[in-house]
Structure formats: C-alpha cells, structure tokens
Amino acid sequence: MGSAAAIAEWGRPASDITHVVYVSSSEIRLPGGDLHLAARLGLRSDVGRVMLYFLGCYGGVTGLRVAKDIAENNPGSRVLLATTETTILGFRPPSPARPYDLVGAALFGDGAAAVVIGAGPIAGGESKPFMELNYAVQEFLPGTHGVINGGLTEEGINFKLGRDLPLKIEENIEAFCRKLMGKIGNEELGFNDLFWAVHPGGPAILNKLESKLGLEGDKLESSRKALMDFGNVSSNTIFYVMDYMRNELEKKKEGGEEWGLGLAFGPGITFEGILFRSL
Q1: Contact (Cβ atoms closer than 8 angstroms) between residue 239 and residue 60
Q2: Among this protein's residues, is 177 annotated catalytic?
Q3: Phi, psi of 18 (to 5 degrees)
Q4: Fewest CB atoms less than 10 Å from the CB: which of 69, 136, 231, 276?
Q5: Is the keyword GTP-binding assigned to this protein (predicted)?
Q6: CATH assignment of the domain containing 221
Q7: Residue 278: CB partners within 8 Å, gap ≥ 6?
Q8: Nearest to 260 by CA among 138, 135, 118
C-alpha cells in the first residue's frame, strides 16, 4: 500500500498522523475512501479527514496545496496525502462510433501514491524532507469548462478531452508560471534555471509546454519517464514525476536547481501550480 510505504519512509508511527487528505476521481461511496484508509492504516479515530473527489488530473497538486494549508495552520500536524485512481472504470470496448475511446485506453493507467507533509520538521525524529512547498496557485480559464468533461453514466465513469486542450494550455501557461516564479524574488531566474515536475497529461501537452517556454531537452525528462512507465494515472501521476525528480536532484547534489515548479491541468480548464524549493 502506498500510504503504508510513505509512513514507513517518514519514520514515525501511523498514530502521529493528524490529518488525511484523500484524492480520487474513481469512486463515489459512503463512507468515503478516506475513512477506509484511516481504518486500515490504524490511524487514530480523531484524525482530521478531507476528501477531494472528481478533480481529474490536477487533483494531486490540489492535494498538495490543501495539505500545505493544513500543515501551516496547525502547528505540529502531519498530513497524509493519499491519491488513488482506477481509470480502467472508464474503459470502453472498441467501437467505430467512438474511436476516441481507444486513445483513453492507451493513455490512462491505474495506481496510487502517498506523501507525508508537515511544517517544522523534527531533526532526527523523522526522515529529512526533500521538498519545500513554498507557494501555491489555482486558476481556471473562463469559457473553457467544456474542453474536459465527464460524469457517471449507465456504462460507468465517462471522460472526454477536447482536441484543443494542448493549445489552451500553450496559450496561458507562460503567464501562470511567471505568477508562481514571482514569489522567488529573483528576476534573473529564467525557465531553464528551474526544475520541472509537470503532470504528463499526454505527449502533446508536454511538447507544447516545452516549446512555449523554450525549455531545454531534459527539463521534462521526469514527466516523460512517468508517462512512459505508468501512463496518465490522473491525480497520482504528479507524485511519480516528483519521485523521479527527487532522484535527479540527488544525483546533481550541490549543482542542482534550487527552485522548481509543479504543474497540473484538468477540468475547468483548471491550472494548479506549486512553487517548490529543493532541500
């Protein structure tokens, strides 16, 4: 289980988890997955729980933002952020009337991920944090709510992505990134001075972003590797990208980038972004 592995790496008992943020676009049930997870992990009965349902591909970064806010406003708290997606629920058998379904079957995957987030790390009492969540922004593009849509039907969960999604991202991504970068306070830093953890919604999105921002060839390597290895696993995928990015930054050590951006895009069209600082 991803959550159990995250707690084990964190190095403290599960009973020290004070809050759970649970993200999924693959289920609707009462009680929710947050309660099932807390019970299975043996978390304390007064753990604070938040469910984030049906956010789609940006849900993982939303979870980071919400967990960040909880941790910063509750001194000493430790937040378990867990994501789980079973995109096979959206599978449709091939049909000449719906050729687009084949794209979804090839692109999407299933999986889970988890991280522990807190403020004021305890030296020697828990594993050393590897990333600071410095600043977070969410923004939607007016008039684009039909570009990504989905819902529950008699056939199950149904999602559809508009063909103009990569173009809409390309047209708006630079201003969004500059808004996040403004919090660094160093106007000399350019896009290639940062590390990048981008949700790989598909190859076209990564290509458009890379071209628009003039990124060097290896800047989106972690995103491309996650897409190749796991597919688009909706809210989970950003954590696979971050794990690959953590390994890359550890290899670079003192020569690695200090600042980076975490980005994801989903229904709305919604942009979700985090300014990271490597520790």
Answers
A1: yes
A2: no
A3: -100, -25
A4: 69
A5: no
A6: 3.40.47.10
A7: 130, 131, 132, 195, 249, 256, 257, 258, 259, 260
A8: 135
Range of the domain at 19: 2-118
* DSSP assignment string, 42-60: T--TT-EEEEEES-GGGHH
Which of the following is catalytic: 7, 23, 38, 57? 57
What global pTM score does this model have?
A: 0.93
Q: How many domains does the chain have?
A: 2
Quote the tokens at residue 161: 């992505």
- Which of 274, 201, 276, 196 is CA-nearest to residue 235? 201
What size, in residues, is the chain? 279
Taking residue 203's Cβ as centre, other Cβ atoms within 10 Å add up to 13
- Residue in 86, 75, 66 with CA at minimum distance from that of residue 24: 86
Whether pLDDT at 100 is above 70: no
Q: What is the torsional sign of CA 58, 140, 54, 207? A: negative
Tokens of 243: 């794990």
> Partners of 52 in the beta sheet?
23
DSSP tag of 149: E
Asked if pLDDT for residue 23 goes beyond 80, the answer is yes
Write out the two tokens for 147: 């570009």
Report the distance separating Cα 41 and Cα 14, nearest Å.
Answer: 7
* Residue finishing a domain among 118, 151, 171: 118
